[in-house]
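Tutorial, part two.
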Amino acid sequence: MSAPSILSAAVSDPKGPHVPVVSCVPSRNVLVVTLGGTIAMSKSSGDTGGVTPRLTGADLVAAVPGLDEAVSIALEDFRQVPGASLTVDDIAELAERCHKAAASGTDGIVITQGTDTLEETAFLLDLLYQADAPVVLTGAMRNAAMPGADGPANLLAAVRTAADPAARGLGALAVFADEIHAARHVRKIHSTSTGAFASPDAGPIGHVIEGVPRLHFSVRRHRAVPLPLKAATVEIVPTVLGGSAAVLDGLEHRANGAVVAAFGVGHVPATWVEPLERLAARMPVVLASRTGAGYVLTSTYAFPGSESDLLARGLISAGPLDPYKARLLLLAHLGASADQAAIEAAFAERH
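Running the prediction step on this input gives:
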């Protein structure tokens, strides 16, 4: 969204030249919810050590000149923790807060948090949130004490995206380095770069250009998972060269479901085949690719431990979802007490 919208009209005045009559279009309402993370980290006076979460929502907004020119900002400090310390329960509670904000007439919601888990938070919110007001997540790779801190620019782009009517109905989005990403596609692909986020399979759905969000295409939303969620545990089991199937032993006693981060298009060592078949008979086991881009195939290979072999033995294809997103999709449906058929349908809907 650009600077405040101004409507001007010229009217005749019998005593003089045309006089402009100016009226302002009502501003959009955006709620900024802070969770902590690098964007909120700084040092205390005289501190020579590392940074910690210290900045409030008011501090973040004050660091962005002109942020409130085009929108009416409300602030809420929801958490103040590093991204690595956020929990599924935190995000479920956050989804409820977003529902309440949307129901009260908020036009858009911006969430600032640590980038460590931003892609997972965005995806889980996209699963749980069902209102039309956009939820836009952002953060920073450089904290406020560093030269070239990127938090203010990211926050400005996120607020303008959340306030744009074109973003309504798109669910959860991530805005970083002036790129707009759909939650289902976005991934953190670099540990330190200010351009750390990308959507490997789809690309960004838009960009913020001269302060204005420009959406190139939209994505179809899926049905929201109902809240509240009961407690559930889903483990990710990675495949590695020469890895032992012993990592699967007793997994059904420690978890309610599992995601196999398989090689390539969905392959595992031959020694894993029978243990995985037994495990899939006891709980949902999802087959995902550890590569982070591309699909799990269905029928190209036929050797023991291939994708077709494993799917025939009862594993569920993650399709295009990476292991981390597949875990959250399975976790959310287990938390909503979905049965095996409903879980399989939820994953099939993503293909």
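The domain at 28-215 is CATH 3.40.50.1170 (Rossmann fold). In part three we will examine how such features are distributed along the chain.
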